[in-house]
Amino acid sequence: MKINWEGVMPAVTTKFTAEGQLDLVMFEKNIKAQIDAGVNGIILGGTLGEASTLTKEEKEVLINTTLRIAEGKIPVIVNIAEQTTSEAVTLAKRAEELGVNGLMLLPPMRYKATDHETVVYFKEIAKSTSLPIMIYNNPVDYKIEVTLDMFEELLKLENIQAVKESTRDISNVVRIRNRFGNRLKVLCGVDTLALESLVTGADGWVAGLVVAYPAETVAIYKLVKAGRVNEAVDIYRWFMPLLELDISPQLVQNIKLAEVATGLGTENVRAPRLPLQGTERERVLSIIDLAMKNRPVLPEYKTI
């Protein structure tokens, strides 16, 4: 399946039972809700998916389950965030064997690689697979920035095709477009900058709160791309307090509480993460409760 690298692509959470096992029943319910809302792809194994706590076997179960649910209707993309190049290459090859449609690559984990090391790392993975690739550029959280000059080198490989742009510099969308045209697709990776990024030329949105509010997220994307920006802004203003839950070290716990509110998940996380407690839990719940009471009526966005 060809990936166009556009539209809304949820970085989905991993569902767990109270006993800490994979909750595939709730996971399937959520994936189906994303597809029904009109998302353009599913991304597995990101930070929000608690990938660092998953075993190799669990990752394969999630991949196979998602491919079965998607039925080839939308692409399934796997995130690679490994500690060594060889581990990353092994996972990329295995993902392709399982039938995954694309990859998202983080820079080397637990080591602040130089620009040269980072480029070589990405290129070694890309050369090991025929799958199309999106580079995750998030220097705020991962301390490594993929600069435009680095992308100039990376784009010599045809299967490196997109960037999840999370530098927090909204003007970077324009810089990328000016430098590379449509050769490098741009997807916003920061929920609180999504509308602004789309207006300035981003092709898509790798979203977090979409796992709890898929329809609202897709509606914003569709309205912006249809030129109905004012309507999109109205929804976005309602959404902003929720979207801010994504830019927190506890984003997983925050977003899973939002999934509980919409019936699309549970708050079970895997240690060392623990469910929110005390005043912070009360604060997050108050944001979610207020949003649920004022949830907007959406236009018929699917027909736009």
Protein described:
The protein is α/β, with parallel strands linked by helices. The protein has one domain (7-303): TIM Barrel. It is 45% helix and 12% strand. The chain is built from twelve helices and eight strands. The chain has an eight-stranded parallel β-sheet with strand order 1-8-7-6-5-4-3-2. α7 links the parallel β6 and β7 (185-188). The mean pLDDT is 97. GO terms for molecular function: 4-hydroxy-tetrahydrodipicolinate synthase activity; 5-dehydro-4-deoxyglucarate dehydratase activity; N-acetylneuraminate lyase activity. It comes from Flavobacterium soyae. Keywords: Lyase. This is Dihydrodipicolinate synthase family protein. Belongs to the DapA family.
What's the short story on this structure?
With 304 residues, the chain is α/β, with parallel strands linked by helices.
Classified by CATH, the class is Alpha Beta
The proportion of residues in beta strands is: 5-15%
Average pLDDT reading? 97
Order of helices and strands: EHEHEHEHEHHEHEHEHHHH
The named CATH superfamily: Aldolase class I
Query: How would a crystallographer describe the biggest sheet?
Result: 8 strands, parallel
Count the DSSP helices.
12
**Topology, number of strands:** 8
What kind of assembly state do the chains in view correspond to? single chain
> What would the principal axes of the Cα set say about the shape?
globular
Placed side by side, the strands forming the largest sheet appear as 1-8-7-6-5-4-3-2
Radius of gyration: 18 Å
The structural class is alpha/beta
Task: For the record, give the distance between the C-alpha atoms at the N and C termini, rounded to a whole number.
Answer: 24 Å
Instruction: Classify the helix fraction into a percent range.
Output: 40-55%
Tally of distinct domains: 1
GO molecular function: 4-hydroxy-tetrahydrodipicolinate synthase activity; 5-dehydro-4-deoxyglucarate dehydratase activity; N-acetylneuraminate lyase activity
EC number: 4.1.3.3, 4.2.1.41, 4.3.3.7
Keywords: Lyase
Protein name: Dihydrodipicolinate synthase family protein
